[in-house]
Amino acid sequence: MGLTMSMVAPKQRKHLCADALCRLVQNSFANLPDHRCDDAGIALPDALMAAFAMFSLPSPSLLAFDKQRAEGNVGTIYGIPRAPCDTSMRETLDPVSPESLRPSFTRVFRHLQRGKALEDMVFLDGHY
User: Fold this and answer.
1) Fewer Cβ in 10 A, N or C end of the chain?
2) What are the C-alpha distances in Å from 102 to residues 55, 62, 109, 115?
3) Is residue 30 part of a domain?
4) Domain that holds residue 58
5) 44-47 contacts: CB < 8 A, separation 24 or more?
6) Residue 116 CA to its chain's centroid (Å)
7) Through-space distance between the first and last CA atoms of the chain, rounded to whole angstroms
8) For the chain, what is the domain count?
9) Using the 8-state DSSP alphabet, how is residue 17 labeled?
10) Is residue 118 part of a domain?
11) How many percent of the chain have pLDDT more than 70?
12) 92, burial (CB in 10 Å: exposed 0-12, middle 13-18, buried 19+)
């Protein structure tokens, strides 16, 4: 009978890929006011993206992450021209209010909700 089986690939949602979500986070960080003076060596959005990278990469410690940073992988993956070392990251990010980062989180969360990427994570009364 000459039937051919074809595999149907799921429709890709490019706006939900890792690159698109990283750009969303980076654009959100770019809107945050910098609490430091103008001569800061590394831009606040870059320091924030480096912290985001640290938590999203499987680094067992800040020291291990610092090694990845020094090798240049972080800059390539997360689009950070210059990532801070661990001490500089602490000094830069400690004064940043966690509340000022909430809009960035909310923006990504809503993006994922609209794209139905979180449907499998709903567990009770619509909570995630």
Assistant:
1) N
2) 16, 23, 10, 20
3) no
4) 44-95
5) 44/92, 44/96, 46/80, 46/81, 46/82, 46/83, 46/84, 47/83, 47/84, 47/88, 47/89, 47/92, 47/93
6) 19
7) 48
8) 1
9) S
10) no
11) 86
12) buried
Residue 92 to residues 28, 31, 83, Cα–Cα distance (Å)? 17, 16, 12
Residue 64 lies in a domain: yes
Instruction: Please answer whether residues 45 and 26 qualify as being in contact, where contact means their C-beta atoms are separated by less than 8 angstroms.
Output: yes
Helix, strand or coil for residue 127?
strand
For residues 102 and 55, what is the distance between their CA atoms, to the nearest angstrom?
16
Q: Which residue matches tokens 């020291």?
A: 63
Domain assignment present for residue 18? The answer is no
Count of Cβ atoms closer than 10 Å to residue 50 Cβ: 26
Tens digits of residue pLDDT in 62-118? 778 877 777 766 777 888 887 788 888 888 899 999 999 999 999 999 988 888 888
